[in-house]
Amino acid sequence: MFFSIDTNNGVAIYEQIVRQVKFAIAEESLRVGQLLPSVRALSVELAINPNTIARAYQQLQSDGVIELLRGRGLAVCTGALEACRSDRRTIIADRLRSVLKEALHGGLDAYEIQSIVRNQLAELVPTINTVASNSPTQPIS
Amino acid sequence: MFFSIDTNNGVAIYEQIVRQVKFAIAEESLRVGQLLPSVRALSVELAINPNTIARAYQQLQSDGVIELLRGRGLAVCTGALEACRSDRRTIIADRLRSVLKEALHGGLDAYEIQSIVRNQLAELVPTINTVASNSPTQPIS
Amino acid sequence: MFFSIDTNNGVAIYEQIVRQVKFAIAEESLRVGQLLPSVRALSVELAINPNTIARAYQQLQSDGVIELLRGRGLAVCTGALEACRSDRRTIIADRLRSVLKEALHGGLDAYEIQSIVRNQLAELVPTINTVASNSPTQPIS
Amino acid sequence: MFFSIDTNNGVAIYEQIVRQVKFAIAEESLRVGQLLPSVRALSVELAINPNTIARAYQQLQSDGVIELLRGRGLAVCTGALEACRSDRRTIIADRLRSVLKEALHGGLDAYEIQSIVRNQLAELVPTINTVASNSPTQPIS
DNA sequence: GTGGTCTAGACCACA
DNA sequence: GTGGTCTAGACCACA
Question: pLDDT truncated to tens, each residue of chain C (141 aa)?
């Protein structure tokens, strides 16, 4: 499936699940009306305690992103697509902002930071490699 | 002084202090031989429990960045500048990598991400605004 | 269990725990993959504050000897056996060196010191009594 | 002079001074009636805070090893030689006992320990080298 | 004044 | 149940 949990990135596991569900909805790999994997199934798939999954689902419910269909499971609410698209950007922007602030505060300058971003992106998205590493931050005269 | 603690960014307070001390050394606002602010003083300044400060200082000691001058305080070790320069880049690169992975995994593409980075940098470093927003991440037609 | 804390020997309690865990691993009474006693359990067993135990466990983690299994506890890492065997020898040799230096500096000669060592060993390991006193240090009649 | 302070051996500095004075008396490099170096002089010599020296001298007084001669300084008491000879053995034996206990508790056996002792002594007393490393401690008649 | 150690006890994420 | 983090406050050695 589309989940990938990182135990050591400072974000709580349940929070990572919340986000990844929202992201899946945002990129429409999960559509309105569609059922989420059951707590039990996801718990097995991710090798994570069911309580943790349940907690994530609970938050998604209270965020109004999914709803309980009794006897059937949890389904993506109408309107979730737009909400999640927006949430996704905010979540990423917030995390980025936090790191960028730390970097600037620590004395790195904007160029240096953007160069690190390019390098990391190049590693993570090999195909974008050339694009990311040739022009990116250098103006062409 | 140069500390700025954010209680809600997922990074433990003592860890934020560790990093900020390393960053201060990296940018030479704290130099070899210089004393750190005392546990008590920093605790007052940041309104944080002295034990938390002490824990940060202890980790800095075991990282070989500062050393105890008995009865006088904790001073930056020789060699700390190079170590901290390197640590700083690693710390930032790791955090960035983690966010970038999340963003890509969530369906944002490299351009979109770089655009967010530019925007955030522009907000955080108003003066660099133009530089950051002109060429950086746009391909040349 | 295998812990024995001495509050008045100049070695901090958390440090004694660190060493005794390493020693237990070195003599394989604690094996790779095995869980340590929980912070709370050991705290009760030794009548020592849980924070002190936690501090010891934290140092063992940063020494790469044990690792966190989230929600389950702390387990001995692979490779810990060799590391602890080596640490054990170093720890003991360093402490011995320090006492021997003091003894020599204080005017005792090597023979006198070795005689004290023999006597102490004989008292501490009654069964090894004869062994300790026959060949190692006694002349053959 | 005869002092040698080791800041990192777990024994408090004032306690090291107490012991080294007793040892000096035991080996008669300091004799009954002789004056100790003044607090100020010793403080300079050892680059240690006068308060620490004063504290050591205070303990030596309360141990009945030295006495105040008003206007002249602190002098070795009569009877101090025997007391210090005995103290010296006890102090060393106690520290040794503590290390040996730790070593045995940690799974090293008596032979291994004695071998470490021999090695350390050989390093510390180069001249005793051969004696110490071949036949343990006694010459064969 | 300096840091180091320890106790006591709270709250959190996770199993 | 597990450990991690943090607060509050005590006492010690050393300057």
Answer: 578 999 878 899 999 999 999 999 999 999 999 999 999 999 999 999 999 999 999 999 999 999 999 889 999 999 999 999 999 999 999 999 999 999 999 999 999 999 999 999 999 998 765 444 444 444 444
CATH number of the domain residue B76 falls in = 1.10.10.10
Encode pLDDT of A91-110 as tens digits.
999 999 999 999 999 999 99
Is D31 within 8 Å of chain C by CB?
A: no
Residue B1 confidence class, pLDDT cut points 50, 70, 90: low
Beta-strand runs (E) in B39-139? 66-69, 73-76
- Determine the Cα–Cα distance for residues C83 and C32; give it in Å rounded to an integer: 12
Domain membership flag for residue D55: yes
pLDDT in tens, C76-86: 999 999 999 99
- Which chain A residues are Cβ-neighbours of B134 within 8 angstroms? 139
pLDDT, one tens digit per residue, over D112-135 is: 999 999 999 999 998 765 444 444
Cα(B20)–Cα(B1) distance, rounded to whole angstroms? Answer: 11
In a domain, A139, yes or no: no
pLDDT at A8: 76
Interatomic distance B48 CA / F8 C1' (Å): 11
Cα C73 to Cα B10, C53, D8: the distances in Å are 22, 13, 33
CA–CA dist A49, A15 (Å, integer): 14
Q: Does residue B112 lie in a domain region?
A: no
- Judged by 3 or more CB pairs under 8 A, whether A touches D is no
Q: Is residue A50 part of a domain?
A: yes
* Distance in angstroms between the alpha carbons of the first and the last residue of chain D: 38
Which of B96, B115, B131, B140 to mutate: most A Cβ within 10 Å? B96
Cα torsion at C37, C43, C49, C54 (round to 10°)? Answer: 0
What's the total number of domains in chain C?
A: 1
Q: Confidence band (pLDDT; 50, 70, 90) for D6? A: confident
First to last CA, chain B: 46
* Residue B36, min C-alpha distance to chain A (Å): 17
Write out the residue range of the structural domain in which residue A38 sits: 13-80
Burial of D85 from C-beta contacts in 10 A (0-12 / 13-18 / 19+): middle
The tokens for D48 are 């240690």
**Assigned token pair, C84:** 């602890």
- Nucleotide nearest C14, from its CA to each C1': E5
